[in-house]
């Protein structure tokens, strides 16, 4: 028993200043509620309250970073200041994402409905904030934020992914976007889409392992696109349940077509490739 207690004691000593998930999750939820009153526990009436909340959140982040220098290579207070100086851009991009969801979903009756109830909004907001922290060279905290969104929405977006403006996730459950994925502007994806890596070794962690999705691409539910060299050209459409490990040029349409089976038949499922530019695929 003493040996067990010693192990637990040592674990607590080693982790004494590690940021608790509750602290990080609370920081994100409070920040989201500050940016979007639909997620606030109480209404802000005075402008001075906004400044006070920003200062409080900046102090919280600064305190966590100063106590956990192993999570970054800079000055904790300066990093927290830089994050909040960039918050207006993050806010603007999230607003554009809300526009994209509203324009892309006929079922959305208002922006307010999206802000209050859409998992895509919650997951993308978490990603934008987490990516901003990740871009400052801060580790672990961005991942804790993105995994909170994952647990609530079923949408997993690694904070290292690079996603352009006007990004729309419809429905969302089961979406996976890997660490080195690059997504352009005005891209829309549906539930169950995986932008993942082919099997790679641990030592290949620093190479680009996930696909590139160019501007104005739509990817329908259940599609799987793998590999760091795979590029989906702009203005392309990838149909539901398509499995892609190679690039397709701009203007492509890729569909998965099932066949009816019967005894003695040799027909199989097949993919259909079309290209607006008449290029061979």
From TrEMBL:
GO biological process, one term: cysteine biosynthetic process from serine
Stretch forming the signal peptide: none
Keywords per UniProt: Acyltransferase, Amino-acid biosynthesis, Transferase
GO molecular function annotation: serine O-acetyltransferase activity
Annotated ranges, domain Serine acetyltransferase N-terminal: 56-125
Keyword Acyltransferase part of the UniProt annotation: yes
UniProt GO cellular component terms: cytoplasm
NCBIfam families associated with the record: EPS_EpsC
Protein name: Serine acetyltransferase
Organism per entry: Algoriphagus machipongonensis
Species classification: Bacteria, Pseudomonadati, Bacteroidota, Cytophagia, Cytophagales
């Amino acid at each position: 028993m003493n040996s067990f207690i010693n192990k637990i004691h040592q674990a607590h000593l080693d982790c004494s200043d590690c940021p608790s998930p509750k602290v990080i999750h609370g920081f994100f939820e409070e920040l989201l509620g500050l940016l979007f009153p639909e997620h606030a526990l109480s209404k802000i009436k005075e402008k001075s309250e906004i400044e006070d909340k920003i200062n409080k959140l900046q102090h919280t982040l600064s305190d966590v970073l100063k106590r956990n220098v192993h999570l970054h290579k800079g000055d904790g207070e300066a990093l927290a200041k830089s994050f909040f100086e960039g918050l207006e851009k993050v806010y603007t991009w999230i607003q554009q994402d809300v526009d994209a969801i509203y324009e892309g979903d006929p079922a959305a009756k208002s922006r307010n409905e999206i802000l209050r109830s859409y998992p895509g909004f919650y997951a993308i907001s978490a990603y934008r904030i987490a990516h901003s922290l990740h871009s400052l060279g801060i580790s672990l905290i961005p991942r804790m934020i993105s995994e909170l969104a994952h647990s609530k929405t079923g949408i997993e977006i690694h904070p290292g992914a690079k996603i352009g403006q006007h990004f729309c996730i419809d429905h969302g459950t089961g979406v996976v976007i890997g660490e080195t994925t690059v997504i352009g502007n005005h891209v829309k994806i549906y539930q169950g889409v995986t932008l993942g890596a082919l099997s790679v070794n641990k030592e290949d962690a620093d190479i680009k392992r996930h696909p590139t999705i160019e501007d104005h691409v739509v990817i329908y539910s259940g599609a799987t696109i793998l590999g760091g060299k795979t590029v989906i050209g702009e203005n392309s459409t990838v149909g539901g349940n398509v499995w892609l490990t190679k690039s397709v040029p701009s203007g492509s349409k890729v569909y998965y077509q099932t066949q009816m089976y019967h005894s003695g038949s040799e027909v199989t499922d097949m993919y259909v490739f079309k290209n607006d530019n008449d290029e061979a695929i």
